Amino acid sequence: MAEIIDGKATSLAIKDEIAEKVKQIVNDGGKVPHLAAVLVGDDGASQTYVNGKVKACEYVGFKSSLLKFDSDIPEEDLLEVVDKLNNEDDIDGYIVQLPLPKHISPQKVIERIKPEKDVDGFHPVNVGRMVLGLPAYISATPFGILKLLERYKIDTEGKECVIIGRSDIVGTPMSNLLSRKTYPGNCTVTLCHSRTKDIKSLSRNADIVIAALGMPEFLTGDMVKDGAVVIDVGVTRVPDATKKRGYALKGDVKFDEVAEKASYITPVPGGVGPMTIASLLYNTLMASQKAIYS
């Protein structure tokens, strides 16, 4: 039976470490880190996520600002908001919560953010620096996965890693990060996607499997070998009449089957998810200290 990789406990440990660093900064007469979030519209999941970020800022001693706008805000007006945040010296980093309404180009918005304030790690400059192995803000989910592998001392050197899903947010950056000459890294990486033939034969030979395609319970027990490390990134609401809220959260991994064979596994919820906010806080701390862009 697999050992559970506890994202809740790990994220709490990271937040406690950040809180101690903030106390030291304040004691030394330094500036309190300030994270801002921009929320457009009334998407429930986005609202919940942003509220979680605000609470996390309070926990670690950051200042936080939440800027909310109606879903019909013109694109140019939102870009002006971005410009103001770029020029606000007190704000160290900020995020524009995705998804955005259809009339607003997320790429235009992301590219308008100053790279040194892009604590989400989505700007092309940060992505490019990451690919080149230069200091950069790494997007929260891949960064969180790296921290889980590191904190659980999971050996990655020379391992076969299969990543299922090639999104710009998780799969593609993860493939780059785990192939780098560092730890966690030095993997031989195979990136699978919707056009990959016979994913099962690839995943069954992998020492590490990262499922990030958004299909509930896609990865089954017969798709992994004994002793594999399995990281489940997916979170999908599946109707469930037995639950008070009417749905259950399912990952991309059929947990009960895969946990019987794996050596380590992340649960859903409570695995990768909590690490995203901890990673965002870490990036904001780095931004406040000018650790990436001096």
Outline the fold blueprint.
Layout lengths: L2 E2 L2 H21 L6 E7 L3 H17 L2 E7 L5 H12 L6 E4 L9 H7 L11 H8 L8 H12 L8 E5 L6 H9 L8 E5 L6 H5 L4 E4 L17 E4 L3 E4 L7 E4 L4 H5 L4 E2 L7 H16 L6
Parallel strand pairs: 1-11, 2-3, 2-4, 5-6, 5-7, 7-8, 8-11
Antiparallel strand pairs: 9-10
Helix pairs in contact: 1-10, 6-10
Brief write-up:
By secondary structure, the chain is of the alpha/beta class.
Describe the strand arrangement of the main beta sheet, using strand numbers: 1-11-8-7-5-6
CATH homologous superfamily designation of the largest domain: NAD(P)-binding Rossmann-like Domain
| CATH fold-level name of the largest domain | Rossmann fold
Number of strands: 11
H/E element order = EHEHEHEHHHEHEHEEEEHEH
Largest sheet: 6 strands, parallel
| SS-based class | alpha/beta
**What's the CATH class label of the largest domain?**
Alpha Beta
- What is the beta-strand fraction? 15-25%
Relative helix content: 25-40%
Q: What would the principal axes of the Cα set say about the shape?
A: globular
The total domain count is 2
Low-confidence stretches: none
Spatial gap, N to C terminus: 47 Å
How would you characterize this protein structure?
This protein is of the alpha/beta class and 294 residues long. The protein has 2 domains: 29-114, Rossmann fold (3-Layer(aba) Sandwich), CATH 3.40.50; 140-273, Rossmann fold, CATH 3.40.50.720. The chain is 38% helix and 16% strand. It contains 10 helices and 11 strands. The chain has helices at residues 7-27, 44-60, 75-86, 106-112, 124-131, 140-151, 171-179, 199-203, 255-259, 273-288, and strands spanning 3-4, 34-40, 63-69, 93-96, 160-164, 188-192, 208-211, 229-232, 236-239, 247-250, 264-265. α7 links the parallel β5 (160-164) and β6. The radius of gyration is 19 Å and the shape is globular. The protein starts with a strand and ends in a 6-residue tail after the last helix. The model has no long low-confidence stretch (mean pLDDT 95).
